[in-house]
Amino acid sequence: MFNKVQTKKVYMKIVEQIRDLIKEGKLKPGDKLPPEQVLAEKFGTSRPSVREALSALEILGITESRGGKGNFIRNNLNSPLYEQKFKELEEEESPFELLEARKAVETEIVGLTAKKATKEEIATIQGYLNKMKSTMSDIHKIMEFDREFHINIAKAAHNSLLFSMMTYLADLLKEKLWINLKEKSWSIPGRPQKYFEEHTEILNAIKNKDSKGARKRMYDHLAGVEKDLLRE
């Protein structure tokens, strides 16, 4: 029933196949989709691509996730907003590719920041960390302050090219796929506190001018986020 896909944006090809199967009547409202690992094998893709596709399907209203029970077909293909949303998602970047890029870029950035950051810049970064702590129950606010925390670390690296790269990556954190996946991850009990503690360790390394330690903590943090997005 499923075909292997080969394309840059693999997750949208998976979405298209699910959509076509609904149109053909092979998938009906109420049907449960196979588990992610099974879908990955059927499509010949990675599990992250399947997770991105399921997120896109949920945004489009085609499926719904029933906590712990799986993903079920809703069939919202006749929604007047469907085509618009589909086109918007086609333009978005892969959240897991975004994390790969962030691991490469931000790890180097924070190493420079540990060497170059001024007291005033460290105070600004600390300010956003404090705001994160004070808004633990507000997912949207904590995501906003998390983004600013990372942007200001990049600003304190005093490298205009790296800062431009970081602002571009930070803009991608506003895309629907990323927000959908991140909201689910942040809503899991203990996750916000875990990320706050990891951010605190990153900032402490910067304060101590520990470039190597800062790089390791940033990489470990982003690698952990990547794993967490696949766990919930």
TrEMBL record:
Residues of the HTH gntR-type domain: 8-76
Keyword terms, alphabetized: DNA-binding, Transcription, Transcription regulation
Family matches, as Pfam families: FCD, GntR
Gene3D superfamilies: GntR ligand-binding domain-like, Winged helix-like DNA-binding domain superfamily/Winged helix DNA-binding domain
InterPro entries: GntR_C, TF_FadR/GntR_C, Tscrpt_reg_HTH_GntR, WH-like_DNA-bd_sf, WH_DNA-bd_sf
GO molecular function: DNA binding; DNA-binding transcription factor activity
PANTHER family: TRANSCRIPTIONAL REGULATOR, GNTR FAMILY, UXU OPERON TRANSCRIPTIONAL REGULATOR
Name of protein: HTH gntR-type domain-containing protein
Originating organism: marine sediment metagenome
